[in-house]
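Progress report, Aim 2. The chain analyzed during this reporting quarter is listed below.
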Amino acid sequence: MPDNRPATPAGQRRGQGEPALELLVHGVGGTTPQEMLGDPRTVRVTGDDTAGIHRRADDADAESRFGGYSGGLTADRSADPLAEPSADRARQRPIPEAYCWSNLTSGNSARALWLLLLPFMVANLAHWMRPAAPAHHRGQRVYDVLVRLVALSLTVLLTAAACEVALDLVAWQCAASERCARGKSWLGPLTGGWWASPGRRLVLAALVPAALTALLWWLSHRTWSAYESASPPPRPPGPTRPLPGGERPALSLPGFWYGRRLVSRLRAAHTAAGLLTVATTLLTAAASHDLRPGGDAVPEALGRALTAVLAAGWAATLLVAVRKGRTESEPDERIDRWASKVLPGAALGALALTAVHAAWPRPDWAPSAQLPGTGVFAWLALLQGALAAAIAVTAYVLHRAAPPGSCAGRCAMGGLGGAAVALLACALGGVLTGGVAQRVADWLDKEGTPGVAGGAIAGPPVLLSWQAAVIPVLLLVVVAFALVAAVRAGRARRRLTPGIVDSYEGEPRELESRSRQIARVVAWARLTDSAPVLIASVTVATVLLGAGALAGAARTGLPPGPAAASWPGPLPAVAQTVQALGSWLMGAMVVLLVAMGRRAYRDAAARRTVGILWDVGTFWPRAAHPFAPPCYAERAVPDLTWRMCTWTARTGGRLVISGHSQGSVLAAAAVWQLDPDTRGRVALLTYGSPLERLYGRWFPSCFGPAPLRALSEEVDCWRNLWRLTDPIGGPVMAGEEGGQEVDRGPLRDPLHYGRTPEHPLPAPILGHGDYQADPAFDAERAALLDRLDRLAEGREAPCVPAQPERRPER
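Predicted structure tokens for the chain:
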């Protein structure tokens, strides 16, 4: 990028005549510009209602008068927080401006309905959890293909669940049962007239899953136009610090945040898969009648021809889904027209032909207890289990091939986090599927129990009842882990309590309750590091219980309650209770998600709470599932990059991008995207940052020790603040040696132990919030600006070293 900076007058020190800017980026949950800037009067200087840059009204034109800017003075108080600013250490306060991006995740009330697509989001996370093996390793391609196949199976599972409800429970079972259809006037078109035959009822009911597929396509296309199409700023080629394997860090690649082509192709494949699932369901039901001895030859021949057509459609869908992954080396503007338009259109045509075939007159066709083909749920469960096992093997190979130091022993679950998350996404999809089917069956058969003697309908497949029965056992595993974690936190609190007061030298001693209070917060903050153990425990329990459910359903062909009728003692009653409780829990989860969506429609606070889920889960681009909630970072990172590039080029000033919590991840990703010239004018200040503690451990290929080390070597000025009481933030260069000193901490929290004449009231424990209240924040910001100033003048200056602080055991 050309240097358009105005010339600095002779004898005028840089930093006095050129402006300095602090670009604030908030974290999870969002906030308002007024709260970020500490002023009720703010203006938006660029952006829109979804995401924009805001300033105080008085600072709208601050660059034009920066020499006389009255934003106030801050002092470097790293040595003595109570010292008065001196002429040597005083620094002019930078112009503050806030980037507010919370509406990207929680601004629209309809966004809460994305909760129902939670399994898709979880599957997409599995793609980014691959170990940090070299990019040219063959296992990387295998891993990506396996994750995309898992994602495709989830789309088939969702569509099959819609077919189970609409085609099987409603059109096939309830409409054919006089007891079930009694009093349901909305079933009138399916119980009399031209639509009363089984095939035509199925065709009419197939409109529901087909419409669901069309809705998902529309939502994905709409968000694709708004997020994946946000182009990064142009930048001249420049050196980027390579990783130990020789490749460039993934987040520094120009096309990383620009996934138009892949999402468009995956959207076509998943749309085709949904339509083909509906067509396959219709064809399977019709074939069960046509292929019987003595059947009509014409429908049988048409059915065989349609089978070949659908098989070709499935082959094309698989080919499009796995053929090519992400293109990150350069922004890829091209769109695969054949895949994006021809494949979904062909699938829709195949569905139309299958519907005509299913509606063919068959006078002797009578519905059976359950719709033929419901065994697809068992085959899907087996397929997903096999894919998850293959992902685990591939991840193990990649983890072993990772360069030394790329994980430093801190990778979650030894590199198997992606396989565990992929399996949990499948389990979550199964829970939602079973919950919807069980609740709809109970609602249709209000007078009896579906699937047992006296019920008006046969109910959903037996496998779903077995899956419901294992839910209470899985919850017991989670509860047991929570109890163990609580006991460990209590022991840690008692061990930490005696050393708390020693870290506050020169302050009056308080009652031991103050030390216990601080130690308790520190102990509970450490529980975040136990997340890998929880995920591993739940994954192992899911595998064992899922295998047991499959075996029970295949061997008995009955729900757990009736299957246990011959067992001795109280076991039959226990099995019946567990099945009923699990069925209720599966349905309650679906109802809870819908209720959260409805509440978010009316309540902005609830909408913000829902948005917190997406702040963490939708940071990553949609590389595996196109129907997952959209990636807000594909809009936020280009926004921040454009702002830093254009502001520094126009003014020639210094810029500190200041990110809290999730905002620190966005800030680091944006700095990674800068060209070397712009990056030399930008400093990075992070606080409460999960860069290493969460992202580095769970996503080692992008945020592991090697990428973070490369970023620290590329950014001349980077400081990170953290506290022991913070359950999310931590040091970003934990265990790293060499390079610039990035981390400063742990900071004292609370700032003061007891009551003093200057602070007569107890200081609050801040934990994850309000890092600006610590004097270290202003000191580090001033030091970063001074560092940029000295680097521009050619005089190297080390960053302000962290002050030695006595602290409790970590």
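The two ends are 45 Å apart (CA to CA). The CA atoms of residues 525 and 727 lie 4 Å apart. These observations will guide the mutagenesis work planned for the next reporting period.
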